Write the structure tokens for this entry.
Amino acid sequence: MSLLSSNAKISINPLKCLRTEYLYNDCSSCIEACPVEALSISHAKRISLDSAVCIDCNACIGVCPTTTFSNSEFDPIAFILKSGLDKDLVLSCKITGQCLSVFGVENLISLGLREKSLTLDMSHCKTCENINCDGKVEAQIRAAMSEANRFLAPIGINEIVAQETKLEMSRREALFSFATEAQALSDDSSEFDKLFDPKETLPKSRLVLQNSLKYSIENFTVQIIDDKFSFLSNKKIDFDSCTNCGDCLQFCPTNALFYGGEKTKILFQQTRCIACGICDDICKPKSISSDNNFDMVSLAFGRAEVLIENNFVTCKECKVDFPQKHSETVCNRCIDFIQNNTKLFTLARDM
Ligand code: SF4
Ligand code: SF4
Ligand code: SF4
């Protein structure tokens, strides 16, 4: 049986889900976003889609950090790449034929960076009974727009605006030819697939964001943003408590954390971190923390930072190399062993 299950439009590839990546991950963004409870966690602890209930609203596509979901009729990444640069772009469900919830925060930021101006036509939400049944999907679009603006405003890029009244016919007609072309090409995402390395573990939405940052970085008014974002995390590791076990690196789904210099250094690439939280959960001594400083140059150009640099010495008890924190000569494993077996040693000596 194929892992890909699909109804008319929305497909799910559970292999991309963070819960598949790490059994204890508790991401539920798609389940919370779905307005009709079409998503659930199966007995096998995998995300599962009930195609009979799904209304093809795209809300899951917009919120998933790992592009687990796709719409057979519309690829937001293909749309972004095809939409060109430096335009006054209006996104409207009446033009794209898709609910605007298909665009996640990173997609909106990418469009905001690439275009002269970006407007979201929200004038149809209130009367949209099929998808925006209880206002939930509209709230998701507005939340994504607001988060995108928190990112764009401090760096001096035009904020995304919402259009609340219906578009004038002349303006809509002017947009129509561009939209038809863009939508037609968004259907054929294979044209863009060759732009992406199939072995790349970073979601396409992040790769496009990184590229869009590079495109407009010359216009930025500041380099560092200090704010909290749902899709970014800036990791730090506490030198004293980290045991260099490597679990965080092994389970990081995007290789944002990686070893350098014969495993003596742990490095972090801000632009590759999707804020999944797996490293925080998996680190036994709880050595990993995050701050809210995001460096636009690091994000755009993939600069890596050394978080930990260890000096390895040979333990005088077990003769195995260990990361020395200060001037200790015995590794933690031997210290634990000696402490746990003190009574045994005393008994053996007395006998
Ligand atoms: S939003 Fe994506 S990663 Fe999170 S549970 Fe849903 S499918 Fe998995
Ligand atoms: S940060 Fe935690 S999980 Fe990563 S190497 Fe250090 S102790 Fe291990
Ligand atoms: S660094 Fe941590 S939070 Fe970021 S992607 Fe890797 S595991 Fe997830």
Remarks:
- The mean pLDDT is 88.
- The longest strand covers residues 304-309.
